[in-house]
Amino acid sequence: MVYPITYRRPSRISRVSSPDSVPGTEKRNSINESVISGSSGVSHGIPEPLSFDRIIAGGVCPPCTVRDFMNYLKYIERAAENLQFFLWYRDYTKRFNALSDKEQALSQPWLKENVEPETQPRSSQLTPDTSAMSKGTDSISDDGVPVTQTTSEENNPFFTPTLPRTPNSELKRDGGTPTDSYDGSYGGREDHTDRAAGAFQGAGLTWKPLTIQPFREEISRIISIYIADDGTRQLNLSCKERSALLHALQNTTHPSAFEEVVTTVEWSLRCQSHPNFIRWTICNGNRPRVIFARGLGIGGIVGGLIAAILITLSSAGRAYRVLSIIGFLIGISTLIAAWKGMCVVLHGMHHRHLRPWELFTSDDEPAGYDMKGESEDSLFSHSSSNSYEDEPWVPKYEKRNVIRKVFDREIWIQEPALRQIQDTIFLQSILGALVLSIIIVGIFCAFPKGNYF
User: Fold this and answer.
1) Can you tell me the distance from the alpha carbon of 294 to that of 298, in angstroms, rounded to the nearest whole number?
2) CA distance 358 to 67
3) Is 350 helix (H, G, I), strand (E, B) or coil?
């Protein structure tokens, strides 16, 4: 069962980070704390074991892991690029902070109030030490001897060798049709560089990248995939946000350049996608199973009504009318649980249906495979889009008939906090059904005997 999702653009909320990591964040600590604590009201009711930070840190079990969150964003909400970019940024910040002081000095923190006009020479926008380093060299060794940077391509996980443009190696798209242009989702370093340059030109900026800055090639690829208008995983950014980001990346590769964009992305993840993901995860059955459960609930209520009417019209005593409470109790409780996306039969075993994309996993990766121990980089590939219409499981699942979908494969729910939420919903449905059943049976008991048979 898919809950409706509404998107609202945040006005401006500070990125949750350490005040020491990015200058200028001290004055927004109160906003950061409110986002972490969930006091905004959007994530009210989500227990701490299923909090956003705990999921990102890998402290939960299936079906609430980072991989499950990613699958939800990809297949249900269709906004996986937000989490992919957020995970990349966290990893990028760690790698940047692990650099030596000399390498970090090449990319100063981004402070808009200290930016010099764009009309000034490019070299004047650098710090004195950086300008000295950039004269004819890529870096300076520890003993002060200029050296050429040769390890960026070897150590950069985002580097892809450029494919030769020959007739036998042309990339093909759209059913195998050769093309002379390179798509960023298929091409190598040159393609991402060209697309990044196009993004700067579209924003009215002149791009003269400082190759001596750390991770400059990686930043070009990120711009090509997440920021450029035709990026394979383009973020939902306003023109103002995109222009401000490109202006910052024009001068530095410091993580602080992404501050405003990460603010928007993290707000969307914390206050919209995460609560929706938890509500969606509570549903233990697929849509056909939930509809089937609702039908059973309505059938139980109808059965209770028929029994109560027949007993009322008969010459049996009022005490026998209480027997109809069984049908009301079963029917109403099943209907209430199904209305919240739960099947009481599956809940009795603490099982859930496998998702469509989990049903057709390979033999060496069983369904429900726990991804907690995997690195964040394995959760996504920056070289592909988030489109899943061509994935093999889509036509296979569509060929399944309704009966088979109702009785799809099941798996045990490992996350204790999720089972506890489902127990609470089940208990609420039982109590609500009991109250309503007593009221309905009491009304029937108030009628006199029918004595019709």
Assistant:
1) 6
2) 12
3) coil
